[in-house]
């Protein structure tokens, strides 16, 4: 969610994205497709990989499903008709549980009798969030946002018993095959090594094929924005920004000229430059926040320091979560401490 103030110093070999319902082949057997989204950043990149023996594909693997929308189903059907060459989709890999990645998983798996592959942490999180909505869940959600500065007038959406996740993810496939860090997944006769990113999601799977020089990065290494890294009501004292920054170290062995395929934005080269920019971006935000905490602040008092966009009902949850991620990072480092002011948690520089 955070805007990176410094445009990353990257190279973009493909500057024109595919139109919905079409694909662009970026490398042998690797097709880029794009689906529109009804919220920022207005699109998601998805990937279609030729599978089976490399000299004679026998099927396809899809990476990420897209949001559950009728127009997305229609675009998928156009791609199936134009690109699959009569071969079936045998496998769906989902990088993480968020709706724009997971939404059509059940539809695709049923449509093709395909296997779902994802990390255990993401499948179990998807099941957990999908089941959320009991009175106890709602009460915990209200207490979390009220306790972090959300006004009574703005609490309405968080008090609704309906489960917003289910709008984008109507069903979760009931079975899956586990992706594990460092255990290669063979796709198209080549080894793809999972590298786990954290903080944005519990166990986000990125996939690196050294032979092709390609990394499917999902939301972990976006070219123009930092992914949302948030504290959520179910784990109110978490330190996800520490998890995110630590997990970036897992990409250290990926060569600098690797083509990174992000979930949003354009494919790019310059992975280590991008990681350095992400680290610097968060370090700058943390330093500015630490200075501002000379005056005690709730999470909602930090929005103008961290975000360039206006915060309203549609992005309040993301903004509170990301502000808390930065505040908790400072707290865990000993640069800030929390104190109770009535019903609200305030943070003060140490």
Write the CATH homologous superfamily: Ribonuclease Z/Hydroxyacylglutathione hydrolase-like
The percentage of residues in β strands lies in 15-25%
Cα(first) to Cα(last) distance is 27 Å
Report the biggest beta sheet as strand number plus sense, adding barrel if it closes.
Answer: 7 strands, mixed
CATH architecture descriptor text: 4-Layer Sandwich
Low-confidence stretches: none
Which CATH class applies here? Alpha Beta
Order of helices and strands: EEEEHEHHEHHHEEEEEHEEHHHEE
Count of alpha/pi helices: 10
- Give average pLDDT, whole number: 95
Shape: globular
CATH topology: Metallo-beta-lactamase, Chain A
Number of separate strands: 15
Key descriptive features of the protein:
7-stranded mixed sheet, 350 residues, 30% helix, Metallo-beta-lactamase, Chain A, 6-stranded mixed sheet, 15 strands, alpha/beta
